[in-house]
Amino acid sequence: MNGTQIRPIRPEDEAAFTRFLTGLSLQTQVMRFFTGLGRPSPTLVHHLMKEALIAVREGEIVGHAMAFPGGTLGADIEIGVVVADQWQGFGLGPKLIDAVLMRAWLRGAQTVGMDVLGENRRVLRMIRRTWPEARLQVSSGSVEVVAMINAAVLFAE
Question: Are 142 and 117 in contact, with CB atoms under 8 Å apart?
């Protein structure tokens, strides 16, 4: 996406990031956070800003990606990605995923995990294309995904 910059989030992005989160449709909020956010608390905003990358276009945040140490999925890291409604379907999500995986791989991560709502067909199709060998397990309406980070693919782009 020409004109879109992916970069680490900075403290001075907090107000714009809060606007980004509150501007997401309820459907997009649920697909990413498994619930509606309403007005996100400062604590949640600060948590989501830790080690995060953002996509910025014309001075506005249009995407967010984060990686954190793997939890219940048994992966080295787990990721979460969300793109503003009007920018979905243009390839920004995969670009954010590549950027956050590259950063994690450079820090030693070899496997990635994510929880995806079972009804999030677009993301599940992308996962099947990107990681055909991924382990997918259905658990309480979500799909737990664990895959290898393929550095050769990340560095080839």
Answer: yes
User: Domain 4-156 class?
Assistant: alpha beta
Q: Count Cα neighbours of 59 within 13 Å in the Cβ-side half-sphere.
A: 0
Start-to-end C-alpha separation, the chain: 14
Confirm if 85 and 49 have CB atoms less than 8 A apart: no
7 beta partners: 54
Q: What is the pLDDT of residues 114-152, one digit of tens each?
A: 999 999 999 999 999 988 899 999 988 899 999 999 877
Q: What is the rounded CA–CA span in Å between residue 26 and residue 128? A: 26
Q: 112 pLDDT exceeds 90?
A: yes
